[in-house]
Amino acid sequence: MSLKKGLCLFLNVLNKLYFIKLTIKIRCNYLPKMSHQKTNVFSPKKYLKSKKNIKFAQTDIMEKKSQKNQQEMPEAGKILSKPRIFFGLTFIVFAGVLTLSFISYLMNWKADQSQAGTILDKTIKSSNIFGKLGDWLGNIFIFESIGIASFIVAFLFVVFGTMILKKRIFKPWMTFGHSLFFICWLPILLGAITRGNGNGGVLSGVYGYQIMDSLSAIIGNVGLWMVLIVSIALYFILEFNLRPSSIKAKLDVINENTIGKVRSMMPNSDQSFDADQELEEEVIEETPNITVTDLSENRKKPETTKQAPVIQETQPITEVETIVTPNQTSFEEDKEAAPTLNLNITTTPTIPVIKPEDAFDAPVSSSSETDDIKFKVEVAPVIDIIDDADKQSQDLVDKHGLYDHRLDLAKFQMPTLDLLKEYGNEEISINKEELEENKNKIVGLLKNFNVGIAEIKATIGPTVTLYEIVPEAGIRVASIKKLQDDIALNLSALGIRIIAPMPGKGTIGIEVPRKNPTMVSMRSVIASQKFQNTDMDLPVVFGKTISNEVFMADLAKMPHLLMAGATGQGKSVGINAILTSLLYKKHPSELKFVMVDPKKVELSLYSKIERHYLAKLPDSDDAIITDTNKVINTLNSLCIEMDQRYDLLKNAFCKNLKEYNKKFTERKLNPENGHRYLPYIVLVVDEFADLIMTAGKEVELPIARLAQLARAVGIHLIVATQRPSVNVITGMIKANFPARAAFRVISSVDSRTILDSTGADQLIGKGDMLYFNGNEILRLQCAFVDTPEVERLAEFIGEQKGYASAFLLPEYVSEEATSTVGAFDPNEKDALFEEAARIIVSTQQGSTSMLQRQLKLGYNRAGRIMDQLEASGIVGGFNGAKAREVLISDLYSLEQFLEDLRN
Known about the structure:
By secondary structure, this protein is an alpha/beta fold. Among the domains are: 82-241, no CATH class; 432-513, Threonyl-tRNA Synthetase, Chain A, domain 2 (2-Layer Sandwich), CATH 3.30.980; 555-776, 3-Layer(aba) Sandwich (Rossmann fold), CATH 3.40.50; 824-901, Arc Repressor Mutant, subunit A, CATH 1.10.10. Helices cover 48% and strands 11% of the residues. It has 33 helices and 19 strands. 29% of the residues are buried.
């Protein structure tokens, strides 16, 4: 006989002996209690087939054993209780000390770590709640061991304490297994997540980081994460039994419970039977005293007979005869199969009496009579509601197509690139010697001033080279800014500009002009793919950035541009570049220019395109406005045009020009109601300072009004000036011009006026410019377009067929035309007439220039007011170079005179 067979035989013998012993125990304990009941032969084997009964029997035996042991040794428990209590509470208290020490260590772990080895040094104070002992415990368990998994160790001490105290709060072996898993893998997981950065070392501990580092070096980062994910997944699968079969079984139980609840809501006979079964099963599970009878007669009955549950009434004991099937069957089979074993369960609670006929003969709900009625459901078709106006516009589009605003000049050809001059190769040449020399000078100078540099990088542009430096830790940015003049002296360069710090970067920029700058021609930027493929409404190309990229902006989104620069620094070339880029992209029907040129020579080249792109007043002969009086009338006419456009947008229910033109193109707006296709209007003022000096508020007010309101209706402003002083560019104008372009100016004060920061005074000229879009300042090299190129472009457009005349602005009747000397009309007097009269009478000086200064008026309006004062009899006639005679001596007489005029 082999060893394996002998071992199996020995185990079978032990099993049988244990079974016989258990049977005798059950028979001895339960058989006397059943003597008062009618029973046949008792079969322990059949009774033990029920798992519940075995459980009850084993529990009863164990309780009796424990009672017997306590009776035999009453003093043993008292002797062992004191050390158990002592050691159990000691473990629990130590767990609390560990937990609080760990928490306090994590809050100040950097300081506590340095104090961990100085336990006996009294001069050093600890920030831990348990002092240096807490520092030592936190450093040993957390930093030098397993990180925050040390809290699991404190938890295990609590488990040990409860075990010693015989408090079954946790299952020991299961708790130890879970804790060991987390102690092993949690530090490694935290080490893989943090990589030791920041507080990562204290989270994973030395153990977690070293194991993670070793695994990462052996199997790589991907292999490390695969090991972690597979381990965690296996843990949860084994712990929560996440097998497909178990999940399916749980879902089946949920479905059966749902079906049972639904059936319980249905009034049928099956419900009452199921309710009785559930009630009886609950009684079986809750009965503390069990008496078992084996009815052999019921075993002999066939399984196909139906039996109803019989409920007998006894006082005060209720006996419930229920059905228990030995084999598990489906829900439908339980209704028809006959029970093979009946158990009489004796319970003390009172159960409502249910008669068998009530269980089987319960009223069954039949279908209602309305089931025979035919029920038909129809879904109403979706009706597309179209207004009459939309229908008419759709019919017009189907008949004539979309409105094409280019039909009037259908054969107009856009300018070609051949009109612009090609200046040869414009690629940036890299001079390594110059770059290395400048780098060494910058590094050496900063080192002399104790400014350390960690890194330096150079970006070469058309005109300047940008050196980006990363200072060492502890270096103040202000200390580098102060060295701007020293760097310029050391490099022997003009226009050193320091950007500290650079927007969006952790570097400091130093812009150094190149010895041999590269020209940026207009042809190169117009021919770029960025400009040719743009979808901007009003694309404006300025030139190239420091990184040699073409820079473009949308004038429709700026929405207005303010330009400033000293004479000869490229301001007029910049205006020509803007106008050229717009002419290359927009059709004459889409764009109109209103050009104001006090110099009379800068914008006169564009007079050839008057019938294509320019706009003017109806009674004006020249579209390029040079007269100050006509400038005032043109600006006021633009304000009228703006108001008219707003009325059109209001009637068309549109918010901006783009939506309005789209509706008009789709023929949704009727021209008979005044609607028309609205082109963009760009007002270009070459020298704004001259207008302010000659016209004052008569120019400033309409300019400010257009800047505030005109962007939504497609009117945009480009205003240029030589000296951006505060009396020229006032606060009201600056607030409405967020986009600004600054060429080189004379002083830093002018730079602050135009850009709100310095830098424009450090430019090198010749198209070198700064562009401010409201967020950041960009340094650009403006594209160069020469006068012959502009002439060729204007001739190419002017030779083609154009409109009958220039675009006509609304007519504006000035106040000068309505006021004449000698025929004073009180109803047509100027709004400042009375205030001017008080100034003249109080000073007794009839001077037009004084009215200009006091009322901040232009010469024309001040002269008109003086003519009205002469016509009304307040001042005398013109007396050459001398001031006019004041005919009213005091203010009291003047007030009486003005009162008579009002009446």
